[in-house]
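[Meeting: bench + compute handoff]

Bench side (C.D.) handed over the final construct sequence. Compute side (W.E.) agreed to return the predicted structure before the next meeting so the bench team could plan truncations. Sequence as handed over:
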Amino acid sequence: MTDQPQLASDLAHRVHAALAAVGVEHDIDWGPETLTVGDVVGVITQRRPGVTFYAVAEDLVPDDARDRVALAATRMNSRLAASTVELDVDRGLLSVRAAVSLGAPGGAILELLPEDLGALLATAADEVRTTWSQVAEPLKAVVDGREEPEAAARVLDA
């Protein structure tokens, strides 16, 4: 972790304070303005102010499974409201993400109480963690050819 908070953006400081205000344990890397909340990674963005949380698969999806996994992700996304399953079809990177937008591009950052911002961020991180816990095994089964994409997506119907 980069220990240079004096060089970090105002938004990074606000995110850090907000998560602390609601008691969410986290680590922040001030240089690239990324953070971890348990096993979820957050990326603080300036151009479009906000924080995007990710849970990422440890292994890349093999070329021969990418079409099936992309179909499963699409079917899963039609059942999700606050997060999304993503597959980078060029690299095989599989993840779940949820974003919290805190302003328009080039505009002012929304003014929220630290507790309110912290609650929004914690909810988004929890959404990613929960969704990943639901979809990781069914997606692995699609990768391995043990499950069809539609059947894998049904895990979200429960």
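W.E. noted at the follow-up: The CA atoms of residues 54 and 97 lie 4 Å apart. C.D. will use this when planning the next construct.
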